[in-house]
Amino acid sequence: MKFIYVVSAKKLKQLFIVFAAIILAAGIAYAERDTITVFTDGTAVKVPQAIYKVDTKEKKIALTFDISWGETRAVPILDVLKEKNVQKATFFLSSPWSQRHPDIVKRVVADGYEIGSHGHQHDNYSKYSEEQMRTQIGKAHTILTELTGKKPTLLRLPNGDFDKRVLRVANDMGYTVIQWDTDSRDWMNPGVDQIVKNVVTNAHPGDIILLHASDSCKQTHLALPTIIDQLRSQGYEFVTVSELIAGSEVHSQEIN
Question: Is-catalytic flag, 118?
Answer without folding.
Answer: no
